[in-house]
Amino acid sequence: MEPGTSCAVGFPKGAGKSTTAQLKIHTALLQDLKVVFLTPTHALVDQTARDLRVAFPNTRVEGQRAEDLEEGTLLKELPDILVITPEACLYASHIESRRSESRLSVLRIGL
Known about the structure:
Strand content: 5-15%
Shape: globular
CATH superfamily: P-loop containing nucleotide triphosphate hydrolases
Number of helices: 3
Order of helices and strands: EHEHEEHE
Number of domains: 1
CATH topology: Rossmann fold
Number of strands: 5
CATH architecture: 3-Layer(aba) Sandwich
Helix content: 25-40%
Radius of gyration: 14 Å
């Protein structure tokens, strides 16, 4: 749970992957950090965002799909937790890097 440390978790179903991720997210939120949660598919963006809204009811959680991203349509302010595919994250970071001040910080959690 150390800040700045990434992890990849590969366990069978029901072995605690989600709980491990939620602990890491909670650690980041307690430090007033924003979280970018990468999911491999668009279907998991919606499911993960929904699950995280339940786990963190007082936290702003948003799901972002690659097809929803266009220059100038990025979220004005990052939510506490942004759930996104790796492709959409790469595209968003490319758009953000062209701005004078970048607001995209990533807490990498691999599941």
